[in-house]
């Protein structure tokens, strides 16, 4: 499974899991709904941000290999490992080269 598809599936799982957990806590406990929903939204935001963190670097969206030092074409960067075309921002590529 492609790296991007895995990240999307993880984010969807977290969204569903936290939603079910929040609904359960609201149903069972006598906690205020607004507080539970606020904590749930914060938790989802933090976890989804962590899941998407690898895509801030120049990595292949298919296999996860680093694309540092690769040249970008008009449609993205071709991974030398798997041959997949990943759309990586030129700014991210430049930042990766400087690091
Ligand atoms: Zn690759």
Description:
This protein is mainly alpha-helical and 99 residues long. The protein has two domains: 1-56; 57-99, no CATH class. It contains three helices and two strands. The protein has a two-stranded antiparallel ribbon with strand order 1-2. The chain is elongated and about 55 Å long. The model has no long low-confidence stretch (mean pLDDT 90). Residues 60, 62-63, 65, 79, 81-82, 84 line the site of zinc ion.
Quaternary status of these chains? single chain
Number of helices: 3
Bound molecules: zinc ion
Helix content: 55-70%
Main β-sheet, in a few words?
Answer: 2 strands, antiparallel
Uncertain stretches of 5 or more adjacent residues? none
**Rg from alpha-carbon coordinates:** 18 Å
Taken as a percent bin, the fraction of beta residues is: under 5%
Q: Secondary-structure element sequence? A: HHEEH
Q: Structural class of the secondary elements?
A: mainly alpha
Q: Overall mean pLDDT score?
A: 90
Strand order of the largest sheet: 1-2
End-to-end separation: 29 Å
Write the layout of secondary structure elements.
Layout lengths: L2 H26 L4 H20 L24 E2 L6 E2 L3 H9 L1
Antiparallel strand pairs: 1-2
Helix pairs in contact: 1-2
The protein binds zinc ion.
Condensed summary:
With 99 residues, this protein is mainly alpha-helical. The chain has three helices and two strands; from the N terminus they run ααββα. The chain has a two-stranded antiparallel sheet with strand order 1-2.
